């Protein structure tokens, strides 16, 4: 199927497009994980562990969620500046 045909089918929303997708090779852009190491004081790790246990998730999960929430909040309040390095 040509891209234009697929786009038209999607835009019309009259047919299910899932059968036209090759889901086994699909991936989300910029979602490939990268490993980083971050050192925190012991009290921060203890606090993270307590909060993670309280809500029933892992330490890594709570760190990811909180960082993403903060980055999204910062992006909302930030005015783009094309002169800033990325």
From TrEMBL:
It comes from the Bacteria. This is CopG family transcriptional regulator. It comes from Vreelandella neptunia.
